[in-house]
Amino acid sequence: MATENKVIRCKAAVAWEPGKPLSVEEVEVSPPKEHEVRIKIAASGVCHTDWTYLYHCEKGVNSRPFPHILGHEAAGMVESIGSRVTAVQPGDKGQQVHQFIGVSTFSEYTVVPEYNVTKIHQDALLDRVCLLGCGVATGYGAALNVAKVERGSVCAVFGLGAVGLAAVMGCKAAGASRIIGVDINAEKHEIAKKFGVSEFVNPNDHSKPIQEVLVEMTSGGVDYSFECVGNVTLIRAVFEGCRARGEPV
């Protein structure tokens, strides 16, 4: 490619300091070094982790020095590769995995270690595939790989955003007999049903704690419960909504 081994000037959304809006401006992206890959980003999701890093790092959340380019779930095309790279070639479609904020996907181009890139099918829709890099993998994996949900079990998923809906899909794939979605946004009920939720509970519709509601609904508690919001105040509800020997995740 014409840009191979050259510095690329492109646009990126830069976080200059905590709590301030991102600034879209021109940046320079160096060529990839040994075992590195430079990717032209086609689509990037926005994760709650990005929001937390930007707006809460001054409140005790560990962070890297500012300025910084956020973003960590993306898909795009391999523009060029450094020496000794074997997993991908220029022109391949790639998805970033094993990622954290340092991959900087809020940029038109980014350079990442080779092990952060997974080659995907050339027909893959990049604006969909990018979500697999974080939110979908987190929720789906929590159900199948962490909890190891068993067929016929009863599950509760707290928070029906991207991670929560992915957890619902994982529970459904595992053969759960009941999947109870818990969310304070009533508008999420209909879309959650499409992903596999069999029952929906809005904590705001009940005068008692949501864990007590779940225990009553299930005659003793659910087998597996998933906290998919990132809210420490929900952890107690997730634990107490489980039956004896149930598994909160």
From TrEMBL:
Residues 34-121 form the Alcohol dehydrogenase-like N-terminal domain. GO terms for biological process: formaldehyde catabolic process. The keyword Zinc applies. Coiled coil: none annotated. Signal peptide: none annotated. GO terms for molecular function: S-(hydroxymethyl)glutathione dehydrogenase [NAD(P)+] activity; zinc ion binding. InterPro entries: ADH-like_C, ADH-like_N, ADH_Zn_CS, GroES-like_sf, NAD(P)-bd_dom_sf. Keywords: Metal-binding, Oxidoreductase, Zinc. GO terms for cellular component: cytosol. Residues 162-247 form the Alcohol dehydrogenase-like C-terminal domain. Its cofactor is Zn(2+). Pfam families: ADH_N, ADH_zinc_N. It comes from the Eukaryota. Belongs to the zinc-containing alcohol dehydrogenase family. This is Alcohol dehydrogenase.
